[in-house]
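Hi all, posting the design record for the shared folder.

TITLE: backbone redesign
STEP: 1 of 1
STRUCTURE INPUT:
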């Protein structure tokens, strides 16, 4: 039931983040827009779903654990893991604030706006820390891919969570 879905969501969230980190460490910045669309978009939408089920410290621990897992699997990915953890923590805080402040809106509206703001924070912080640049085209592509991927994943999740989320 509910507990199984929660554990599955946590595992999917951690796996997507870890795979994104390891693939960037392996293949370099060019894979970032693909990751942003498929994996980070998924995590943005899942974070909003998890927002209703986890305490703030639990979400922070989940984000930090993905960085540690990335490092454990590939110590050479340390810079990417750290950049990812810091960027996603900053984005999660922003996302959390925007999502929480929009209680009167539907889950989908809350998710779309909070994901857009979080994607901007995540893209800038990650590019600066991982690649040492804020190269505008790379950041723009990552941002657009995260927003588009997040929108698709949020739409897929929205049906499942709307009734429950509106009561939250």
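Okay, here is what came back for every position:
SEQUENCE:
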């Amino acid at each position: 039931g509910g507990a199984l879905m929660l554990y599955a969501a946590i595992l999917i969230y951690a796996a997507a983040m870890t795979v994104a980190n390891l693939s960037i460490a392996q293949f370099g910045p060019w894979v970032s827009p693909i990751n942003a669309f498929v994996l980070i978009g998924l995590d943005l939408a899942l974070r909003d779903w998890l927002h209703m089920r986890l305490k703030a410290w639990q979400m922070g621990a989940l984000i930090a654990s993905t960085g540690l897992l990335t490092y454990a699997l590939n110590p050479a990915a340390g810079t990417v893991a750290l950049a990812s953890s810091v960027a996603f923590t900053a984005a999660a805080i922003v996302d959390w604030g925007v999502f929480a402040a929009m209680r009167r809106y539907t889950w989908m509206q809350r998710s779309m706006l909070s994901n857009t703001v979080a994607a901007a924070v995540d893209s800038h912080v990650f590019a600066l820390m991982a690649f040492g640049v804020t190269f505008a085209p790379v950041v723009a592509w990552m941002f657009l891919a995260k927003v588009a991927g997040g929108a698709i994943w949020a739409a897929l999740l929205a049906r499942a969570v709307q009734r429950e989320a509106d009561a939250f």
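COMMENT: The mean pLDDT is 84.
Let me know if anyone wants the other runs.
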